[in-house]
C-alpha cells in the first residue's frame, strides 16, 4: 500500500463547493425558481425541484469552468486570489473534470427528467458563459459583460421552459431585464474595484474607456432596463402587484443610477453612490422577481 | 513556508479522504432517493416508457 504521506494532498470538498460560486448560484436559483413559479402551468413539485437542482448544478459547472480557465487572472486580483486554484489548494485538472462532470450531469438530468426544451436552454447558457464570456470576450473587449450578461439571464427562461415546455413573451422580457441589468450592476462594481481589474489586465470599461464613459453608459443602460422591468404590466402579462413594485423599485434604481452617472470621483472619494447602486441592484432583482411570483399566486 | 511533518501530512490526507468519501456517500444517497422519486412521478404521469 502506498503510504498516505507520499500521496498528493487531496483538495478539500469545501474547495470544490467554492468552485461553484455559491453566492452567484443563489441569485441564479432564485430567478430560475421565479420563472418557473410565474409560468401559467404548474409543474410537479418533484420535477420542479429537479429543474431547480439542474439550474443550480449547471450554474455551478459554469462557475467551476470559469475558475479553471481564469486561474491566472484570479491570482492577480485581491478579490479572487484566495480561490482554490490561485491559492494552490487544488489542481487545475480537478477543477476541469469537476466542471465538465457537473455540466453533463445537469443537462442530462434536465433532459431526461424534466423536458428537452429546458435542457437545451441550460446547455446554451453553460456554453455561453464558458465559451462566449469567459474564453472569448472577457480578456478581449470592454463589452465583455454586456454580451456575457446574457449567460446570467437564462435562468428565468429555463424555469419557465421547465414548467411549460416552451418559451413565451414574459420570460423573454425577464431575459432582457437581466441582460440589460448586468452592465449597470457590474460597471458600478468595476468603478470601485477598478485597480484590481487594471492590475489583472481585464479590459473592463472603466479601465479602457475611463470613468466618465462608464458612468454615462450606466445611465444609458438603465433606461431600456427600466422599460423591460415595467413592460409586463402595461402589456397585460402581469397584474398590479408586480406593476406597482416594478414602477417603485425601478424609480429608485433610476435615481441611484442617475446619481452615479452625473458625478465624478474626487480625491479620497469613498465611492458611496457606486456601492449603493451595486448593492441595490441585487435587491432590485429580488424585489422584481419576488413581486412577479406574488402577483401570479396572489392576484 | 514551513514544511509539514510527514506524519501530520498523512493524517491530513486521510482526514480529507474521509471527508470527501462522506460527502460523496451523502450525495449518492440523495441521488438514489431523487431518481426513485422521479421514477414514481413519471410512472404516475403515464410517461414511464
TrEMBL record, chain A:
Cellular localisation: Cell membrane
TM region positions: 24-43, 49-69, 95-113, 119-137, 144-163, 169-193, 218-235, 241-258, 278-298
Keyword set, alphabetical order: Cell membrane, Heme biosynthesis, Membrane, Transferase, Transmembrane, Transmembrane helix
One Pfam match: UbiA
GO MF term (any one): protoheme IX farnesyltransferase activity
Superkingdom of origin: Bacteria
A GO CC term assigned to this protein in UniProt: plasma membrane
Enzyme class per UniProt: transferase
Record has Endoplasmic reticulum as a keyword: no
Catalytic activity: heme b + (2E,6E)-farnesyl diphosphate + H2O = Fe(II)-heme o + diphosphate
Enzyme Commission numbers on file: 2.5.1.141
Entry's family note: Belongs to the UbiA prenyltransferase family. Protoheme IX farnesyltransferase subfamily.
Role summary: Converts heme B (protoheme IX) to heme O by substitution of the vinyl group on carbon 2 of heme B porphyrin ring with a hydroxyethyl farnesyl side group.
Additional note from the record: Carbon 2 of the heme B porphyrin ring is defined according to the Fischer nomenclature.
Protein name (record): Protoheme IX farnesyltransferase
Amino acid at each position: 500500500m502506498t503510504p498516505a504521506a507520499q500521496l498528493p494532498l487531496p483538495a478539500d470538498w469545501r474547495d470544490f463547493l467554492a468552485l461553484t460560486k455559491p453566492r452567484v448560484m443563489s441569485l441564479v436559483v432564485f430567478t430560475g425558481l421565479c420563472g418557473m413559479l410565474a409560468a401559467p402551468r404548474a409543474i410537479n413539485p418533484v420535477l420542479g425541484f429537479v429543474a431547480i437542482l439542474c439550474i443550480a448544478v449547471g450554474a455551478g459547472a459554469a462557475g467551476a469552468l470559469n475558475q479553471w480557465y481564469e486561474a491566472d487572472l484570479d491570482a492577480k486580483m485581491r478579490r479572487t486570489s484566495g480561490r482554490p486554484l490561485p491559492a494552490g489548494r487544488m489542481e487545475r485538472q480537478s477543477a476541469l473534470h469537476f466542471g465538465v462532470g457537473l455540466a453533463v450531469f445537469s443537462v442530462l438530468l434536465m433532459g431526461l427528467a424534466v423536458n428537452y426544451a429546458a435542457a437545451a436552454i441550460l446547455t446554451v447558457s453553460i456554453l455561453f458563459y464558458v465559451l462566449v464570456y469567459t474564453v472569448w470576450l472577457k480578456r478581449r473587449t470592454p463589452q465583455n459583460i454586456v454580451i456575457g450578461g446574457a449567460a446570467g439571464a437564462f435562468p428565468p427562461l429555463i424555469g419557465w421552459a421547465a414548467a411549460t415546455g416552451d418559451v413565451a413573451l414574459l420570460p423573454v422580457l425577464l431575459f432582457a431585464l437581466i441582460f440589460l441589468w448586468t452592465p449597470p450592476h457590474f460597471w458600478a462594481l468595476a468603478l470601485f474595484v477598478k485597480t484590481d481589474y487594471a492590475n489583472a489586465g481585464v479590459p473592463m470599461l472603466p479601465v479602457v474607456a475611463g470613468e466618465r464613459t462608464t458612468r454615462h453608459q450606466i445611465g444609458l443602460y438603465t433606461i431600456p432596463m427600466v422599460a423591460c422591468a415595467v413592460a409586463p404590466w402595461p402589456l397585460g402579462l402581469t397584474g398590479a402587484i408586480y406593476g406597482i413594485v416594478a414602477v417603485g423599485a425601478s424609480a429608485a434604481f433610476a435615481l441611484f443610477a442617475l446619481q452615479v452617472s452625473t458625478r465624478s470621483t474626487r480625491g479620497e472619494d469613498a465611492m458611496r453612490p457606486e456601492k449603493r447602486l451595486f448593492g441595490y441592484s441585487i435587491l432590485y432583482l429580488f424585489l422584481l422577481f419576488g413581486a412577479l411570483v406574488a402577483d401570479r399566486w396572489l392576484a | 513556508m514551513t514544511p509539514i511533518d510527514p506524519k501530520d501530512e498523512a493524517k491530513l490526507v486521510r482526514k480529507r479522504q474521509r471527508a470527501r468519501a462522506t460527502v460523496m456517500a451523502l450525495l449518492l444517497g440523495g441521488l438514489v432517493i431523487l431518481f426513485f422519486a422521479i421514477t414514481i412521478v413519471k410512472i404516475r404521469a403515464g410517461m414511464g416508457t
